[in-house]
Amino acid sequence: MLERVLSSRRAASVSDDGDESKTRKHISLGTRVTNYLIRTGHLWPCLLIGLVIVVVTSFVYHTRDVVCISASSSDHLSRLRFFAFDGLETDFGSLGVPWCRSKHGKTVEWTTKDLIKGLEEFVPIYETRPIKNNMYGMGFDHSFGLWFITQWLKPELMIESGAFKGHSTWVLRQAMPDTPIISLTPRHPEKYLKKGPAYVDGNCTYFAGKDFVDFGNVDWRKVMKKHGIKDLSQVLVFFDDHQNELKRLKQALKAGFRHLVFEDNYDTSTGDHYSFRQMCDQFYIRGGGHSCFKDSDEGRIRSRRKKFWEKAVDIEELCGPGEAWWGVRGQMRDDFNHSNKAISYAEHFKNSRFVESVLDVYWELPPVAGPSLTHQTRYDPARASSPIVEDGRYGLFRSLGLSRLEASVFNGYTQMVYLQVSQE
Ligand SMILES: C[S@@+](CC[C@H](N)C(=O)[O-])C[C@H]1O[C@@H](n2cnc3c(N)ncnc32)[C@H](O)[C@@H]1O
């Protein structure tokens, strides 16, 4: 009762200051309602109902996107929240995201602005691709990367190893309409034509089918002479053949090629062949790289990220017998993992030193756009460079035409890399 009197006085003092605002009206109305409820004995039931309404409204408000959307979208949202709170760069910063260092710290000429301009040009080209569903072959990110690098370098000859149905041959052709291509692939792409879409190029020499020769066994001096190539720095070689990349690098160096693109530059402990990423992973850290303890900082970060990204690797997947983390659990894989060989840390270290001693440029293609835009759920963005179109820039994503593409084309990113090499 005393409280009621005090409340009325407070309300009165507000109304006495001459303010005609809604607050004053609201307070006096509230007071009147309270008085009424006390008089009729309904105050406590009403307070209880009010409390329930507040709790339910607040719950719905804070979980509205989870409540209103499908399960997979809610997964996506939690994934986005996860890395938004975490801060991508710092997450693996202390662990070291693999990156090969070039001999003199040189990098590529092109900038993010050039890449964005390139995307504007490439999206409509990509939409005309003959092989719409290129499962087991390149998706959008790497198709763009190959096209961009090729049209920037303008080689006089393009060589590809691993053509499958011919999508990458088509990409090379879009970049350089009149330049000859040499394609090495065990099964001729024309074979796929019988079953569905494939691409066979009119200005391409195929070492395929019964004419197939592995890149390492080609007499490149003879082939270059036949194509009138005198300067090997005018040749671009593209590898998508799932072979040990150290082996391919040595073969390319022996032949004298300088510009190389590798499609699948798998992260440590993933993939079916030894890659540059694997070779350059933390070899320069004294005592060597990763922690294989489940409860270490790395172990905890990895197991958290594993919940959100299909290709993220936890400690159990990272470390093989004897805590061997290099390559794939201490193995050097080759030829679609048909061959694999255990290597010691010392050997791995030697390989890494060799790679860096011949690198003039190492450039990993960034993902074309952040996961909140592409909705990709596979690769961990914390293990990749910042995307060309960063999360939150939906306007740019849409204006580049990227929102017109199916989400599945953004799922195949594996750190495609461009290397410029020269002898040790
Ligand atoms: C992932 S697919 C290539 C995809 C293709 N670049 C694309 O974008 O659609 C790998 C290809 O490598 C071929 N391959 C297997 N062993 C090879 C070798 N030693 N040299 C060249 N290609 C090889 C396979 O037959 C297959 O066509």
TrEMBL record:
Keywords: Membrane, Transmembrane, Transmembrane helix
GO terms for cellular component: endomembrane system
Keyword Membrane annotated: yes
Highest taxon of the lineage: Eukaryota
Listed transmembrane segments: 42-61
Sequence segments annotated as region (Disordered): 1-22
UniProt feature, compositional bias: Low complexity: 1-15
Name assigned to this protein: DNA-directed RNA polymerase subunit beta
Originating organism: Anisodus tanguticus
